[in-house]
Specification:
Shape: globular
Structural class: alpha+beta
Helix content: 10-25%
Largest sheet: 9 strands, antiparallel
Oligomer: single chain
Strand content: 35-45%
Number of domains: 1
CATH superfamily: Calycin beta-barrel core domain
Distance between the termini: 26 Å
CATH topology: Lipocalin
Order of helices and strands: EEHEHEEEEEEEEH
CATH class: Mainly Beta
Radius of gyration: 20 Å
Length: 257
């Protein structure tokens, strides 16, 4: 594209527009439920210390956290920040006054944020690799439902990289979230108006429901000169591509990384 004597790269313009659309669709108050699973896919029960006495008396097992994820993507600065908030379980509509149990803040953009790699799509979906301690990585996938832009699933896989050659899955976190309005930094909770429900103890999907050939577009990115970290990233990106090919089938769309 020409502007007088100045050349404006088309790719740059498309990138700016893609981020602008991403920021618009990713930002807001996302409330829902989250659960931890073992590396075998078994739901992990919440600690007894956080479960209301009423549930313990009824011998009700609780596997899901009610969650908030206030998210803000800056259209101009290309910064994405969000909080994953776990709320103490409550009985009935006391959820409107739930207490925070844990807050995990993340930031894409800037320095010393633990981010190793990040890829996004204008739909609001993204993939991130977070460097934890030692050889531990977290692979995060955020998938927007193409039939409902106010519904998404986030999957976080905890990966142990052994000797720079072997990847071991240590555990999985899953968040099923709905959009409840513009970003308010978690000041308001959906509470009893929440449109979703706990899911961790429901029956798993039959393998036959997802067996088949899945097609999607793909892209390749490099991250500097080869070194130990680059090896981890390459392995992690391969893991993402293999897993994402399956995960996208659950919501019926394709995704490029």
């Amino acid at each position: 594209m020409q502007d007088g004597s100045r050349t404006i790269p088309k790719v740059r313009n498309e990138s700016i527009e893609a981020w602008s659309q991403f920021a618009k669709r990713a930002s807001g108050e996302w409330d829902g439920f989250g659960a931890d699973f073992s590396n075998e896919g078994k739901a992990i029960e919440l600690p007894e210390s956080v479960v209301p006495e009423t549930y313990r008396e009824w011998e009700v097992k609780v596997f899901d956290w009610q969650t908030q994820c206030p998210t803000l993507a800056e259209p101009e600065e290309r910064v994405l920040q969000y909080k994953s908030i776990q709320l103490l379980p409550t009985v009935g509509c006391e959820a409107d006054a739930a207490t925070r149990y844990n807050v995990d803040e993340r930031k894409v953009g800037g320095e010393n944020n633990g981010l190793t790699a990040f890829a996004y799509q204008s739909s609001g979906s993204y993939v991130a690799i977070w460097q934890k301690k030692d050889n531990l990585l977290e692979l995060e996938y955020c998938l927007i439902n193409p039939q409902d832009c106010e519904s998404r699933v986030r999957i976080i896989q905890l990966i142990d990289v052994l000797n720079n050659t072997e990847i071991v899955l240590k555990g999985i976190k899953v968040y099923r979230e709905q959009w409840y309005g513009p970003f308010r930094n978690g000041d308001q909770l959906g509470g009893c108006a929440i449109r979703d429900s706990a899911f961790a103890s429901t029956a798993p999907m039959n393998a036959s429901d997802v067996t088949g050939i899945w097609k999607g577009s793909k892209a390749v990115a490099t991250f500097g000169t080869p070194n130990t970290v680059s090896v981890w990233i390459s392995l992690a990106l391969l893991f993402i591509y293999l897993d994402f090919s399956c995960l996208i089938g659950f919501i019926g769309t394709s995704f490029s990384i």
